[in-house]
Write a structure and sequence with these properties.
The complex is a heterodimer of chains A (163) and B (154). Chain A is 39% helix and 12% strand. With 163 residues, chain A is α+β, with helices and mostly antiparallel strands. In chain A, helix 2 packs antiparallel against helix 3 and helix 3 packs across helix 4. Chain B contains one helix and 13 strands; from the N terminus they run E-E-E-E-E-E-H-E-E-E-E-E-E-E. Classes of the chains: A alpha+beta (163), B mainly beta (154).
């Protein structure tokens, strides 16, 4: 049950019991080992929007793992809070990759060779390459992308900006 | 549909990598004497593919502003603003979820639901960092052949 907003606000720092409670209920924290000693828990009356900001603030401070821990716990505590669920989804790396449709494509050896030694005229330009051929060149990616779309090429080009 | 065979296997015989691609070890946009690992990727919503620097010490998938423009409306709404320390200083941007595909020249391509950091004026190269992107797949590097192997997990 989510807390009411009439309850007094508590600092996130120092409250260490809710992680265990969340684990007892299952959810994202259920597979964790014991929390780290310095890990702040989420107080019972926490405002979920403020918890989301805490997670983002930790990220901004470069504290990725503490941010991930808080996001995991918050997702378990507030299962109907869309933003916290999305934040946890962004941290949770399970099941986020799959074999995509389509098979292998021809290698890019010729494109790479071109990029290793680009001609002088390409400096500062966006270039679309198919093999060693520049099929579109422009000052902006938008310009190059439009040119590529208009050409009905047999192969998807590799597009790059050359300095 | 038949499961693709693994190009690399774990010691227990399970598939580790289902696709592979040659990578570029130098970047014409960055004049530095050290080799790097640049791989081809296709952002969902784009008809063209790009190069991104693999950064196992970095966060998120960071896309150049022009690449973001190319994706256009396909980019999901940001679910939060944060800051990121980079070699170019502190940059502020939004976090999004976006699908990218690692293009394969052996085996099968790999789709990833990546956490993407979008800074309004990021004109530098695209990055595929560890957290939010590379931590979602199996990967291996074969430096002798400049080859990047990848496969799904989880």
């Amino acid at each position: 049950m989510e807390p009411t907003k009439t309850q007094p606000t508590m600092s996130l720092k120092g409250a260490a019991t809710s992680a265990g409670a969340a684990r007892a209920r299952g959810g994202p924290t259920a597979k964790r080992s014991e929390p780290r000693r310095d890990e702040p828990g989420i107080p019972l009356n926490a405002d979920p929007d403020k918890v989301a900001e805490q997670i983002l603030a930790r990220l901004g401070q470069g504290l990725y793992l503490p941010a991930r821990d808080l996001a995991r716990e918050a997702a378990a505590r507030f299962p109907s809070h869309a933003r916290l669920q999305k934040l946890w989804w962004a941290f949770d790396n399970r099941g986020k990759s799959w074999v995509a449709s389509g098979g292998p494509e021809p290698g890019r050896a010729r494109e790479f060779e071109w990029l290793r030694h680009p001609p002088e005229w390409a400096r500062g330009k966006w270039v679309a390459l198919v093999g060693s051929e520049a099929v579109a060149v422009g000052d902006t990616l938008r310009e190059v992308a439009e040119s590529v779309r208009s050409q009905n090429l047999s192969r998807r080009p590799l597009v790059h900006r050359v300095d | 549909m038949t499961e693709p065979q693994g190009l690399l296997l774990t010691p227990s015989g399970e598939s580790f990598a289902t696709g592979s691609a040659e990578y570029l070890d130098a970047h014409p946009e960055i004049h530095e004497p050290l080799p790097r690992i640049y791989v081809e990727f296709l952002p969902e919503g784009s008809a063209i593919s790009f190069m991104a620097l693999l950064d196992t010490g970095g966060h998120y998938c960071i896309l150049n502003t022009d690449v973001i423009d190319e994706i256009g409306d396909r980019l999901s709404d940001s679910f939060g603003q944060t800051e990121l320390r980079t070699a170019h200083g502190l940059i502020r941007g939004g976090l999004h979820i976006h699908r990218i595909t690692l293009v394969a020249d052996m085996g099968a391509p790999l789709g990833i639901d990546a956490t993407v950091f979008v800074a309004p004026d990021w004109r530098g190269p695209c990055f595929i960092g560890y957290t939010g992107a590379l931590d979602r797949l199996n990967f291996a590097i074969h430096p002798r052949d400049n080859r990047f192997y990848f496969g799904p997990w989880g």
